[in-house]
């Protein structure tokens, strides 16, 4: 049976993924994608990129008209609200097709289990389909997708996942493990960024040219995921956020709570320090800055001004 795709959540990442989902539908002769977001203006802003995709006035319309629904939402609370509403809509739907839901959101493993149970009790199928990559990577179809859940269901959606990303990782059948994998991956990114921040602060304190230090990074550790953060820190420019302080603080909090919530508490001092730095920035009203701006707090710890000269307090 042909896919009829819905896409829910048009934040910074969702808005970058959505045009590629629409392109997949168009190139494969499928019906235009149905979109939903809390505020319609996010849809309007990218409407001309969506190959005739239409806006649904409510989530019930998405569930009624689609057999595959992707969601990219801000946090656990948003997921519980949206998936709860879609589960209720599913219970009253007259569709003869089973609806598959793929959750691209970064959430706690215990929340993934809760959502999976809700959707399955309502008669649908649930997959974790978290993605690694900033909005620019999403636009370029260079995401890494971690797909977890029932194998047969994953096989149905895999062509779409392979279209929107550069690699699709099979994360097994446990949706909670898929959610945990995303947080573990983000812990590596955040931890590395924290180490970058400390190393750059040391270099700045002793007079090392940050451009030279960044060149060393680009030579030794040329990762397309990590190198942009070294670049931002070396320049001290954080106003154009690929991933915000506020979102980073959410992820850091989830990472630190994950072990205890799953019965295996683990000490993560680097992530703890990064979380504290993110919290400080949010308290200073900088929650909209890129999360790599934690470098400014490490500069202060080194006795330096938080922002590099000529960067308009990091906004440049």
TrEMBL record:
Record carries keyword NAD: yes
Catalytic residue list: 182
Key words of the record: NAD, Oxidoreductase
Domain 6-phosphogluconate dehydrogenase NADP-binding: 4-167
SUPFAM superfamilies, per the entry: 6-phosphogluconate dehydrogenase C-terminal domain-like, NAD(P)-binding Rossmann-fold domains
Coiled-coil ranges (or none): none
Database matches in Pfam families: NAD_binding_11, NAD_binding_2
GO molecular function terms listed in the Swiss-Prot or TrEMBL record: NAD binding; NADP binding; oxidoreductase activity
InterPro entries for the chain: 6-PGluconate_DH-like_C_sf, 6PGD_dom2, 6PGDH_NADP-bd, HIBADH-like_NADP-bd, HIBADH-related, HIBADH-related_NP60_sf, NAD(P)-bd_dom_sf
All copies of domain 3-hydroxyisobutyrate dehydrogenase-like NAD-binding, residue ranges: 177-295
Domain of life: Eukaryota
Family, per entry: Belongs to the HIBADH-related family. NP60 subfamily.
Protein's UniProt name: 6-phosphogluconate dehydrogenase NADP-binding domain-containing protein
């Amino acid at each position: 049976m042909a896919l009829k795709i819905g896409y829910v959540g048009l934040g910074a990442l969702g808005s970058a993924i959505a045009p590629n989902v629409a392109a997949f539908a168009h190139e494969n002769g499928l019906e235009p994608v149905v979109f939903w977001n809390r505020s319609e203006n996010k849809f309007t802003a990218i409407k001309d990129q969506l190959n005739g995709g239409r806006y649904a006035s409510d989530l019930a319309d998405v569930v009624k008209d689609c057999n595959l629904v992707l969601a990219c939402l801000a946090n656990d609370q948003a997921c519980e609200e949206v998936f709860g509403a879609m589960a209720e809509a599913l219970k009253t739907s007259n569709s003869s097709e089973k609806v598959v839901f793929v959750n691209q959101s970064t959430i706690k493993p215990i929340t993934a289990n809760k959502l999976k149970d809700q959707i399955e009790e309502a008669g649908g199928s649930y997959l974790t389909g978290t993605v690694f990559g900033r909005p620019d990577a999403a636009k370029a179809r260079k995401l890494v997708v971690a797909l977890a859940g029932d194998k047969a269901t994953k096989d149905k959606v895999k062509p779409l996942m392979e279209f929107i990303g550069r690699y699709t990782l099979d994360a097994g059948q446990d949706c909670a493990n898929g959610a945990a994998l995303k947080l573990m991956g983000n812990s590596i990114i955040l931890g590395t960024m924290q180490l970058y921040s400390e190393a750059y602060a040391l270099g700045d304190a002793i007079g090392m040219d940050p451009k030279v230090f960044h060149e060393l990074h680009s030579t030794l550790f040329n990762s397309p995921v990590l190198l942009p953060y070294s670049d931002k820190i070396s320049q001290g420019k954080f106003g154009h956020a690929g991933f915000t302080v506020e979102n980073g603080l959410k992820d850091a909090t989830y990472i630190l709570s994950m072990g205890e919530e799953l019965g295996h508490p683990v000490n993560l001092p680097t992530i703890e320090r990064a979380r504290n730095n993110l919290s400080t920035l949010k308290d200073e009203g900088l929650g909209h800055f890129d999360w790599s701006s934690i470098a400014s707090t490490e500069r202060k710890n080194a006795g330096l001004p938080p922002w590099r000269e000529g960067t308009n307090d990091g906004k440049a």
